[in-house]
Amino acid sequence: MASNPALAFKPEPGTIPTDPGCYLWRDRHGRVVYVGKAKSLRSRLSSYFQGLSQLGQRTRAMLEAAASVEWIVCSGEVEALHLEYNLIKEHRPRYNIRYTDDKSYPYLTITYADEVPRAMVRRNPRKDGSRYFGPYAHAYAIRETLDLLQRVFPVRTCSDGVYERCARIERPCLLYHIGRCVAPCVGHATPEEHRELVDDLIAFLEGDTDPVLDELTERMHAEAEQLNFEAAARIRDQLDAARKALAKQQMVTSRPEDFDAINLHEDELEAAFQAFFVRRGRVVGRKGWTVDKVEDLDTSQLVRRFLLDLGMEREDQLPRELLVPVEPDDADAVKAFLADLRGGPVHLRVPQRGEKVQLLDQIAENAHEAFTQHKLKRAQDFTSRSQALHDLQEHLGLDEAPLRIECYDISTLQGANSVASMVVLEDGLPRSNEYRRFKIQGVAGQDDFAMMREVITRRFKRFIEEASRPTKQRKFAYPPNLVLIDGGKGQLSAAREALADLGIEGVAVAALAKRLEEVYLPDRNDPVRLPRASEALYLLQRVRDEAHRFAVRYHRTVRGKEMTRSVFDEVPGIGPARRKALLDRFGSLKAVRQASVEDLTAVEGISETLARTIYDHLHGRGAAEGAEAEHLGDERSARG
């Protein structure tokens, strides 16, 4: 019988506490590959140290990748739940399931923290004081709803740039003239009056609709009785718009209740969750998640983990009641966890009869449909990624599939403002949070080889330095399976020399030349030419192009700052703060050049005398300066 690889580092049972807590499995590089929670750490960890035949396939795979285990004792199960969630978010372990949005959903957003709030459509909510309603399934649905609501609540929807321009020229935009905005930008409504409209809109979106409908009806009848038929007709249109907006929200209960309803569809490998958000009996939003079940969890454990993610994502919108298909594992601890987030009690209910059971059945059908669509897409994506990594291993003669690829590119303009980029692919997918950029420091002039040597040296020096640090302080501590260089033999040799000088072993190096998409390998005179239609070549091209894009973007930012600084540094009285204020107001050097003296004076900290100095300076620098301004265009990356 095969032995358990965990036995090589099995701790003495007496050293493992019986308290609740979390445990972390790490690989040979110290990277966390799995995080778990246990009511009794000793009991849970002991279950891993047995014969492989008694463990699930996914658990065996995790143990084969692990090289050590450690644990953190907690005072109770609720604290352990919080810690488990935070550790998973921090380390993103490969063998923990992660709930992934199946799309980027749009929200109807009210920027409530602004002095004059704006209604808008936004994806990916932020914790910036805004109020979010939804998510909606389709962007067009939310835009139609917002268009209808603007006829009842004519609040601001324009961007900050449009708002400031209208305020500057003291002329409202078209939305005011067609009755879709009260024009706070030019003072037709005070900020206080506008905020009252915003508060009414928020109340309507939260389900408090009867007062609005009643008020509109009363106003319509009052205008009609006074023979003001045009005014009555306008209010009638507003009433129709409000009712149409309500009709877009599905009524699911006969009582005005607030709750979230959750259901799922799953197989042995994956699952799809759907959640409907019900307020005052109407569905005001819905969202879907997909799950790759890389760890062995039953349905109740899966629901428990999902509720933790849902609660953390929507902590400021959690209702008092959540409907679930089965009672989650550790239900009492989960309820206490959610109650901490909400700041009040939370009830988990499994409906047994009536309209709520029908609603969960409807959500299950949505989950099944989402699961089917995900399977079709995932089959193609997963197959192509696996095939690409397998082909790459074979064509490049690697010992193992390159599960982590780092690609490096240099961006320079005749040796000036030289920068480099590092992009990362793991399992064939971009890991944008691990991208890095470098500003070349030790190379003068146009020497691409020396630049590449510097970048590789800096990256792997950090790897060596951080290998002994605590995990939380590591940024470069995980070596790639393959280092890919954008270039030819010269860049490849420079990278290889840098690795050799540092004593780095076990990292494969290759270079991808642009001319014929040839792959150069160490100790080979002839390049490798991958089949033109191969998934491996497509993968290399994709990561190379991503590295090039990332490097060029950074180079433009650095160059833009240098060019902008060179212009303003010659203007007396302009320092970093005033330069930033000008660029914040106008957006680019080109726009500053086009501004009048009066426009410049409107910027905070710019007097009329200084505005005249700036104007004269920017309009007397000659054709070369003009070309520089045109090159910058509207790039806001030049902000000081």
From TrEMBL:
One of its GO terms (molecular function) is DNA binding. Keywords: Cytoplasm, DNA damage, DNA excision, DNA repair, Excision nuclease, SOS response. Residues 271-499 form the UvrC family homology region profile domain. The keyword Thylakoid does not apply. It comes from the Bacteria. CDD domains: GIY-YIG_UvrC_Cho (cd10434). Pfam families: GIY-YIG, HHH_5, UVR, UvrC_RNaseH, UvrC_RNaseH_dom. The keyword Secreted does not apply. It is found in: Cytoplasm. Residues 210-245 form the UVR domain. GO terms for biological process: nucleotide-excision repair; SOS response. NCBIfam families: PRK00558.1-5, uvrC. This is UvrABC system protein C.
